[in-house]
UniProtKB/TrEMBL annotation, chain A:
This is Uncharacterized protein. Residues 1-13 have a biased composition (Low complexity). It comes from the Bacteria. Residues 1-20 are annotated as: Disordered. It comes from Thermocatellispora tengchongensis.
UniProtKB/TrEMBL annotation, chain B:
It holds the Pfam family ADH_N. This is Threonine dehydrogenase-like Zn-dependent dehydrogenase. PANTHER family: DEHYDROGENASE, ZINC-CONTAINING, PUTATIVE (AFU_ORTHOLOGUE AFUA_2G02810)-RELATED, ZINC-TYPE ALCOHOL DEHYDROGENASE-LIKE. SUPFAM superfamilies: GroES-like, NAD(P)-binding Rossmann-fold domains. Signal peptide: none annotated. Coiled coil: none annotated. Residues 196-264 form the Alcohol dehydrogenase-like C-terminal domain. It comes from Thermocatellispora tengchongensis. Residues 386-408 are annotated as: Disordered. InterPro entries: ADH-like_C, ADH-like_N, ADH_Zn_CS, GroES-like_sf, NAD(P)-bd_dom_sf. GO terms for molecular function: oxidoreductase activity; zinc ion binding. Belongs to the zinc-containing alcohol dehydrogenase family.
């Protein structure tokens, strides 16, 4: 529990319990200090988080030779202007592995789109389909969900 | 146009929605003539899938007529009557090329949710929430079909919609269950669940040469249908299933156990009560009673083939039984494109007829009633199928249960 939440519970207690404001404040401070000390101790005790790969990779059903050199697709060339891009043959003749360094959400979306384009010739669209009445929350949430679902995960 | 939309937990409504249009060059538009409810819809209806939203058009098992094709559609033609696979493949990624169509890399435009939840995104599915791509479903007058050349299959002239509609999902899913189990001559197969998919798994097992198929359910009309197909049946409310299966298999257990129930499994006793409480309190997402039983019942070295839909985690999964009995566990959403042409051909020849599953033909406007009948298993409902072209005025005749056709 964050330390900032700790003092709230005692404030809600009725005054009838006989504690003075000063006494309550003292307890609050004590609680906050204990929580802060606990949080620091917990953080120190926690092992370091495993390092995440800085490369985002997909496997594409394509000849690696077509994805390297001057004739590579424009989208891939543009990606290579902003990122380190690695193209290697996938094992077992499974096409090519495209890995992009330091890929943020937008780049991950671009890499996925590139894979679709190379494999199927188009990028599938779902915006503009029939839909019934959305709730106000749903109308606001759907674009956010889609953005996160297209960019968020590694 | 009219479409049946999810509007809240256990609520659906027919709404006016815009007509679909071609959004990609390989799309086709289909005028829906028949669209079936499916057991997996109940997980959406019951609120177990958090990515379904009010306003989403439901439905994924359907047949219809091609009315428009995109400029890059090569095989399909306007006017063709087609069955469309419920799960959308692209036909070009490694998975589709290997026949693992429901694992398609390219048909889920919003893959991040599944990538976080299960490690990787799987294929898009019509009308099955935004985790599965957010595609509008088929309980509507028209539906847009991406990659139409590989997902829509012409229906032979002599196969009626009442059977062809189930070539979209129930029949290929059932067939895949038997196929994954490696069912062959001499096998004894047990099937948990006698809904559309379970019955078709029983039928497929018999077509693959199984010597005996034992179907398990609790609804008399479903058990009667399974008997009509040629299966022996067990009513799990009346007999101890594990004991009965041992007796029926000379103590060995079934060679192949096909689980066609999924995450809202019913049962009896303390284990069922435990599952209900844990699911209601969100301490587990899926109830795995039938799955546990299938694992327990399966003979040493046998195969458990899981067709029932699971979404998250199942508590108390008997991994010890899987390991120590040397079981093979196989599962998956249907790779329908692999089976549908063969199934339609068998329907043409009269070798497969699934039309008895259609107990309640209804106009689309009666969609909420159809789901209520299906969910509550009222009036002998096995499958309600909506016909968007028909009107409520004819619903009286249309909603008469087709009981005369039932047992086969």
């Amino acid at each position: 529990m964050p330390a900032s939440l700790m003092p709230l519970a005692p404030l809600r207690r009725p005054a009838a319990r006989g504690r003075t404001h000063r006494g309550r404040n003292g307890l609050l401070l004590l609680g906050a200090a204990a929580a802060a000390a606990g949080a620091v101790a917990a953080r120190r005790a926690r092992p370091a988080r495993p390092r995440q790969s800085t490369w985002y990779a997909v496997t594409v059903q394509a000849d690696p030779a077509e994805l390297t050199g001057p004739d590579r697709p424009d989208v891939l060339a543009r990606l290579a202007e902003r990122h380190d891009v690695r193209v290697t043959p996938a094992p077992g003749g499974r096409g090519a592995e495209i890995a992009v360094a330091a890929a943020d959400g937008r780049t991950r979306e671009e890499v996925r789109a590139l894979k679709q384009l190379l494999e199927t010739g188009e990028v599938l669209v779902v915006e503009g389909q029939p839909e019934g009445r959305r709730t106000m929350l749903g109308r606001a949430a759907l674009p956010v969900f889609r953005r996160l679902a297209r960019r968020g995960a590694r | 146009m009219k479409a049946l939309c999810w509007t809240g937990v256990n609520q659906v409504a027919v709404e006016d929605v815009p007509e679909p249009r071609l959004l990609n060059r390989q799309d086709a538009l289909i005028r829906v003539t028949a669209s079936s409810v499916c057991g997996s819809d109940l997980h959406l209806l019951d609120g177990y899938v958090p990515t379904v939203m009010a306003g989403d058009v439901l439905g994924h098992e359907f047949v219809g007529e091609v009315v428009e094709v995109g400029p890059d559609v090569r095989e399909r033609r306007v006017g063709e009557r087609v069955t469309v696979c419920s799960i959308i493949g692209c036909g070009r990624c490694r998975y589709c090329l290997e026949g693992l169509w429901s694992l398609c890399d390219n048909t889920n435009p919003d893959p991040g949710f599944l990538e976080k939840l299960i490690g990787h995104a799987t294929a898009g599915i019509f009308g099955y929430s935004h985790a599965m791509g957010g595609f509008a479903g088929s309980h509507a007058e028209y539906v847009r079909v991406p990659y139409a050349d590989v997902n829509a299959f012409p229906v032979p002239e002599n196969v009626p919609d009442s059977s062809a509609v189930f070539a979209s999902d129930a029949v290929p899913t059932g067939w895949m269950g038997a196929d994954m189990g490696g069912v062959g001559p001499g096998d004894v197969v047990a099937v948990w669940g006698c809904g559309g998919v379970g019955q078709m798994a029983a039928l497929a097992s018999l077509r693959m040469g199984a010597e005996r198929v034992i179907a398990i359910d609790r609804f008399p009309e479903r058990l009667a249908m399974a008997e009509g197909i040629g299966a022996q049946t067990l009513d799990y409310r009346r007999v101890d299933v594990l004991d009965a299966l041992k007796e029926l298999t000379g103590g060995r257990g079934p060679d192949v156990c096909i689980e066609a129930v999924g995450m809202e499994s019913h049962g009896t006793g303390a284990q069922y009560a435990y599952d209900r409480v844990k699911q209601a309190t969100r301490l587990q997402t899926d109830r795995g009673l039938a799955l546990r039983q299938a694992v327990h019942a399966c003979r040493k070295g046998g195969t458990v083939s899981v067709l029932g839909v699971y979404l998250g985690v199942v508590d108390k999964f008997p991994m010890g039984a899987v390991m120590n009995k040397g079981l093979t566990l196989r599962s998956g959403q249907q790779h329908g494109q692999r089976y549908i042409p063969m199934i339609l051909d068998r329907m043409r020849q009269g070798d497969i007829d699934a039309s008895h599953l259609l107990t309640h033909p209804l106009p689309l406007q009666d969609g909420p009633k159809g789901y209520e009948l299906f969910k509550e298993k009222r009036d002998g409902c096995v499958r309600a199928v909506f016909h968007p072209g028909s009107h409520p005025a004819s619903s009286q005749a249309a909603s008469e249960p087709a009981t005369a056709d039932a047992p086969r």
